[in-house]
Amino acid sequence: MNRIDLKFSQLKEKGEKALIPFITAGDPDLRTTVEIVLAMESSGADIIELGIPYSDPLADGVTIQASSNRALENGVKIFKIMDTVKSIREKTQVPLVYLVYYSSIFKYGMEKFIKECSGCGIDGLIIPDLPIEERKDITAMGEKYGVYLIPLVAPTSKERIEKIVRGARGFVYCVSVNGVTGARNSINTDIKEYMKIVSSYTDIPRALGFGISSAAMAEKFKPYCDGIIVGSALIDRIAEGKNKEDILDSVKRFIGELKNGLKQ
């Protein structure tokens, strides 16, 4: 069983919602990435997204763009991230998902990339710039190697939602707002109605992301979804850390607060 399926099954038995934090691999460096992943899991993270840094991340706001730039300036490459995941897998079986832009996969080689994902222990892929019309080959390759393609839907998807989630595996990434990623103080989308529409087309878990920045927001939206995704607010804390110990302490506190919000 894919680790994502197993995790959601375990959470359902306990009546809990998934906490899915996002960080950029290699920010501030790859060794610290390993420690951040382990710190997040120990503090309550259920599934972890690792962003593969990219020079033109169209779906991301300034916070994640800056983290990608820092990682790229440090010389982070895909093959190094694969090795980092192998190091993580020596210490934990927490589900791991890459957020990666299609151009990076294309340049690396599609089958090579997905085969290496499977080999190092990646459970799923989120590809923001992959058109639905182009996903057939990646889906088939993912099925061959046991790596899920996680679909993204948005409030503007409307009549396309049914097509986007058809045959989906793992979970559906439900974008909460129109626009790019970034911490927000409020979300104006009618989340209840939006989640109702998505669930009418699929019964796999729905995780809500984009803009969620606090435990209070996580608690507010948890009744309508199966998981909460938090990225920019977490990356802000990593960027503000004075040293590795400060970063890890801040990450642990924030993840603990978010998880407690989901348990309220």
Briefly characterize the structure.
The protein is α/β, with parallel strands linked by helices and 264 residues long. The chain has helices spanning 3-14, 30-43, 62-73, 78-89, 102-108, 110-120, 136-145, 161-165, 191-199, 215-221, 232-240, 244-263; strands spanning 18-24, 48-51, 96-99, 124-126, 148-150, 152-153, 172-175, 206-209, 227-230.
Protein model, in words:
Its EC number is 4.2.1.20. Tetramer of two alpha and two beta chains. InterPro entries: Aldolase_TIM, RibuloseP-bd_barrel, Trp_synthase_alpha_AS, Trp_synthase_suA. This is Tryptophan synthase alpha chain. Belongs to the TrpA family. By secondary structure, the protein is α/β, with parallel strands linked by helices. It has a single domain (3-11, 18-256), classed as TIM Barrel, CATH 3.20.20.70. Helix content is 48%, strand content 13%. It contains twelve helices and nine strands. A nine-stranded parallel β-sheet has the order 5-4-3-2-1-9-8-7-6. Helix 10 (215-221) links the parallel strand 8 and strand 9. Helix 6 (110-120) packs parallel to helix 7. The longest helix has 20 residues, at 244-263. It is globular.
